[in-house]
């Protein structure tokens, strides 16, 4: 769609709960500033989902709001959840919004890159020498497996309670996530680690067979298999050895939290959840930071917005095919960090003379926008 001769991108925001609204607002400002520099407009629409939707509508997301997302070119989400709605036995829970969006919009490919800005190596709990060169991408299958398999909840009668979760996978689901991961690996260091539990699970044995069959068809790609337990260990022992990891839903959930620790702060990390549907501009997807709603610091303008800003950069890359804009936003974030700007999660309160400037959510967004507008080379 064009307006005043500019391409107009239709983005739905889901601020959600806790710090979600603050970090989404920060990322919106950055995207609007990028539009000014690169000549595009954004038609923003906001919808309510998560705990706030439970309070407002009694459900985590309304079907018409899932439809509003489907009608857009891309979705930017903050975070959902909080202690007010955290009873796992409650019939309505904020994370149901995530499952409705992932399943309803067929967002099967979840990308979770972990890269460590050199200035932040000291914030990681790992020894610095292990972290040099860490640049990995976890590709998590997001609409299958135990998350979406049939379930039987336990009854109420103590003594004989019994529950069942099932973990189904079809070969087509495995093939399509493998092909997404292989595509990314070919654009990187051409190393793909497929993670499973083939010594125990039938779904993992199928996973491994399909990955082998498909892997043979992709020239110049080094495909290896790793059991999930040893992968968990190697992610800490030799994280720089990984390039792209592809794995099923639950393993990807666990390994991506583990990998996120490498980066020092969860606040830094972005994610993308992609479908295979093409819009007028690119691949439809939903983008969100890795961190949660952090209710303890909500409303204080202290949350780190970089994970959401970098998620918006991923959105520019995948949903709008704007590699230029994406690279410029990433470069502006690096520049702000190089310039010494830090949110509280990245600062060392015991060192007042380190030359760093601690800012809040809006201050960090302003620093990134200043770098973007100064036109740092991408
Ligand atoms: C994630 C989260 C969700 C998941 C939760 C909130 C249901 O941990 O996106 O990784 O398990 O997928
Ligand atoms: Mg998780």
Q: What would you note in describing this structure?
A:
The chain is α/β, with parallel strands linked by helices. The protein has 2 domains: 1-114 and 265-378, Isopropylmalate Dehydrogenase (3-Layer(aba) Sandwich); 125-152 and 161-263, 3-Layer(aba) Sandwich (Isopropylmalate Dehydrogenase). It contains 12 helices and 15 strands. It has helices spanning 20-38, 51-57, 63-71, 95-104, 128-131, 171-186, 202-216, 228-237, 249-262, 306-318, 323-338, 361-373, and strands at residues 2-3, 6-16, 41-46, 74-79, 109-115, 135-141, 151-152, 164-165, 191-196, 222-227, 244-247, 270-278, 283-289, 341-342, 357-358. Strand 2 (6-16), helix 1 and strand 3 (41-46) form a beta-alpha-beta unit. Helix 11 packs across helix 12 (361-373). The two termini are 27 Å apart. The structure holds 3-isopropylmalic acid and magnesium ion.
């Amino acid at each position: 769609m064009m307006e005043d001769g500019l391409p107009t991108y239709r983005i739905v925001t889901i601020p959600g709960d806790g710090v979600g609204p603050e970090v989404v607002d920060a990322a919106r400002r950055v995207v609007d500033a990028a539009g000014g520099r690169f000549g595009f407009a954004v038609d923003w629409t906001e919808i309510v989902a998560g705990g706030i939707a439970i309070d407002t509508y009694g459900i985590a997301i309304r079907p018409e709001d899932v439809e509003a997302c489907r009608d857009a070119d891309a979705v930017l989400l903050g975070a959902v959840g909080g202690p007010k709605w955290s009873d796992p036995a409650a019939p309505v829970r904020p994370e149901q919004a995530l499952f409705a969006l992932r399943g309803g919009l067929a967002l099967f490919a979840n990308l979770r890159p972990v890269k460590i800005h050199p200035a932040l190596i000291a914030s990681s709990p790992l020894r610095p020498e292990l972290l040099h060169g860490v640049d990995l991408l976890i590709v998590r299958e997001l609409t299958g497996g135990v998350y979406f398999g049939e379930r039987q909840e336990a009854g109420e009668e103590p003594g004989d309670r019994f529950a069942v979760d099932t973990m189904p996978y079809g070969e087509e689901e495995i093939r399509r996530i493998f092909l997404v991961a292989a595509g990314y690996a070919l654009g990187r260091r051409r190393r793909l680690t497929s993670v499973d539990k083939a010594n125990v699970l039938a779904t993992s044995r199928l996973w491994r067979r399909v990955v082998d069959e498909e892997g043979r068809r992709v020239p110049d790609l080094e495909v290896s298999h790793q059991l999930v337990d040893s992968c968990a260990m190697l992610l800490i022992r030799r994280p720089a050895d990984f390039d792209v990891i592809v794995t099923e839903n639950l393993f990807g959930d666990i390994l991506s939290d583990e990998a996120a620790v490498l980066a020092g702060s969860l606040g830094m990390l972005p994610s993308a959840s992609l479908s295979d549907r093409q819009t007028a501009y690119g691949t439809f997807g939903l983008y969100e930071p890795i961190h949660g709603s952090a209710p303890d610091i909500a409303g204080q303008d202290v949350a780190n917005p970089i994970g959401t800003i970098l998620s918006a950069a991923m959105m520019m890359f995948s949903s709008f095919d704007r590699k230029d804009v994406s690279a410029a936003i990433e470069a502006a974030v690096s520049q702000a960090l190089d310039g010494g700007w830090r949110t509280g999660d990245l600062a060392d309160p015991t060192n007042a003379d380190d030359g760093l400037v601690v800012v809040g959510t809006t201050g960090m967004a302003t620093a990134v926008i200043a770098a973007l507008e100064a036109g740092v080379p991408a």
